[in-house]
Amino acid sequence: LAESLVKPFKDDNKHLQSVYLAALHSGQAFSVVPIDRFILVEAARIRANATFLNLADAIHLATADFFHCSCFLTNDKRLVSVDANFEIVILSEATNGKKNDTTESHS
Hints:
Strand order of the largest sheet: 1-2
Structural class: mainly alpha
Radius of gyration: 15 Å
Shape: globular
């Protein structure tokens, strides 16, 4: 949620802010969950093993792991190199009909 709102806030685009806020909430497709101490500790472990990650990426990955997600959607191709317990899908490739051959599902 925070990552998706940066540009609309920077551009002071109230319409896009409201669209994202309305669309990005818990529902059938995904859940918005609180971050706790365990997730932050796990994020630190992930960053120690993948030093190219920023804190936000590591928190997202730790949260997905904690909640046993089967799939992680992103457009950050660097994330496919992270050892994860779920499939990391490059959204732009998935929507273009391309398969991400470098990703293995560990579920």
